[in-house]
Amino acid sequence: MGFYDRVILPRFINCACGTKPIMKQREKIVPQAEGVVLEIGIGTGLNLPYYAPDRIERLIGLDPSEESWRLAGEKAARLPFDVEFIGLPGEEIPLAADSVDTVLVTFSLCTIPDPVAALRGMGRVLRPGGKLIFCEHGEAPDAGVRRWQGRINPLWRRIAGGCNLNRPIPRLLEQGGFTVAAMEQMYLPGTPRIAGYNYWGSAAAA
Predict the structure, then answer these.
(1) What is the residue range of 67's domain?
(2) For the whole model, what pTM was predicted?
(3) Which of 38, 81, 83, 181 is the most buried if burial means most Cβ atoms within 10 Å?
(4) Phi and psi dihedrals of 202, rounded to 5?
């Protein structure tokens, strides 16, 4: 991993994913998490201020970037519940089946190389009755915007750490073995339309 990916990229993503419209989305979705929580792609800990402490038993943050862990750990130290950081040593989430109550994934499905396999892994670690809470940008409904997403995506993916502009989030959730319980979607105000179409809600493992 080069200097850009190791040091600069986590800070770039922290800035890009910490804009006011995106933080408002985090504020909506993160407080729904409860029990033992697995956060996929915890990154630099942008979601941490929005957890409801009285609802959280323990938080497990999964991220492949050690630099992101370090930045997130500084925020986690101030929280009133336990936070554990784990890496991704292989294809499978390194947790036992049926071991978490909530999986939270925000602005991460765009980057995961195989999102369907990752979603199946999330379903494996969820306990019966558990829920997936998601908030993701992805494929826009307007043909003109989708064309621009397709044109720009190859360059965007190279400079943004593998982020894809145009992943079909509802279809990925279904292919990953989830049934959507509730979902809202819209262009986020104040964001470029090619990167600003947002899907958020909750789903259960089928």
Answers:
(1) 3-205
(2) 0.90
(3) 38
(4) -140, 155
